[in-house]
Structure formats: C-alpha cells, structure tokens
Amino acid sequence: MPIDIYSMRLSPPCRAVLMAGRELNIDLNVKTLDLSEGEQLTPEFLKLNPAHTVPTIDDDGFILWESRAIMQYLCNQYAPDSTLYPREPRARALVDRWLNFDMGLLQSQREALFTKLFSGVDPPEDKVNAFKNNLKLLDALIGDNKYLVGNNLTIADLSVLSTTIVLEKMDFDVKDYPNFKRWTATLSQQLPYFQDINGFDMKAEAMVYIEKIKAKRAAQQNAN
C-alpha cells in the first residue's frame, strides 16, 4: 500500500522526502497541495496536520510531518539497515547534526534570497552576510568529501541538496564555494531520480507562485 505524501514541489523539504523515497524504493503517492490557494488550510487537511505544513505523510493512518522526521521514519521503518541513515551511533549523530544545520541554512536562505521576491524590499545586509557565512561554512565542511558523512549517501545529503539546489536555479553565483559547487554537481549527476524531482523551472514556477500570493494579499486588503 503506497504512502500518501502531501507535497508541493517548490518546497525543498518536500523534494528531500521524495528523493529519500526514491532512494529507498518506497512507493509514495503524491498529493499536491497549492499553498498559494490555501489548500493546506482546508478542514480535511487540518485534521491530518494542524500545523498545516508540507510535507505530510499518511502511512496507513500514521500521520507525520516535518521532512527530516519523515526521512528518519522511512529509513527506520522500511530500511533499518540502510546506509542512508546509518545505525552506528556516531555516524547517525553526524547525520543528525547536518539535518539540524540544514534547518538553519534553509531559514537563512529564505531571509537572504526570497525577501525581495515577496516584498520588493532588499533584504537586510546582515541577513545576506549571514547566509554567505553559512555557505562558507558548508563549503569548508564539505572539503574534498564526496558525501557529507562518511563514504555513503545519507539523508543529510538529500536534505542539504534539496535546500541549496535552488541557488543554481535562481542564478546565484557560487564560484566562491568550489567544494559546494562540486558536491552539488556530483550528486545531481549521480542520483538517477534527481531530474525527475528537481528538473523543473524553479525560478519561473516560484515567480508564478509569488504573484498569486501577492494578488491574494492585495485582494484581501482591498476587501478590508
């Protein structure tokens, strides 16, 4: 029986879970939600997830949201011996550390890159610098490594990759981060499902989504 996943492909956390599912050969039944239309706020979805966030999975009545928790669950439940989420405590701790780092990286990226797209206002300089410093740290930690932890692909790679692939799509210059650039290019070529999940025009789709949000906000303001 497939696992239902409520998803939006612009969302990096959603794409991370989809990649994990493909890596583990788990059948995920994608139910797309249009957040710009408020589909995450319907009574039906709120019964599943009061936090109204994506991704959310329904595994035969077991409801779970938060992408990193979902990936950990999928590994623990369906592939406990997979190197995607290693069982050895220290290796697993390093994966968990990266997953926590990625949460801050995603928020920093949003503040630095998407503030202007949504509001038309340049992001504060300190937010931009904070994001660049996060990228410098990421670049340094990657170093010459092929993967973020050990010699195997893990959910840490999938989570960070899904967060940062938008930089290339949004024409962000990554020349100052050569290790990161190499790591991204290597994984993008290595993962057979990468293009299926990430190969759409993110920039164009993001602009359509943002314009819909702006139009809805304007309509609400006019109504008031």
From TrEMBL:
CDD domains for the chain: GST_C_Delta_Epsilon, GST_N_Delta_Epsilon
Protein name (record): Glutathione S-transferase
Gene Ontology terms describing biological process: glutathione metabolic process
UniProt GO MF annotations: glutathione transferase activity
Cited InterPro entries: Glutathione-S-Trfase_C-like (IPR010987), Glutathione-S-Trfase_C_sf (IPR036282), Glutathione_S-Trfase (IPR040079), Glutathione_S-Trfase_N (IPR004045), GST_C (IPR004046), Thioredoxin-like_sf (IPR036249)
PANTHER family referenced in this protein's UniProt entry, alphabetically: GLUTATHIONE S TRANSFERASE D10, ISOFORM A-RELATED
Cited Pfam families: GST_C, GST_N_3
Location of the GST N-terminal domain: 1-82
Quaternary structure annotation from Swiss-Prot or TrEMBL: Homodimer.
Residue intervals of the GST C-terminal domain: 88-210
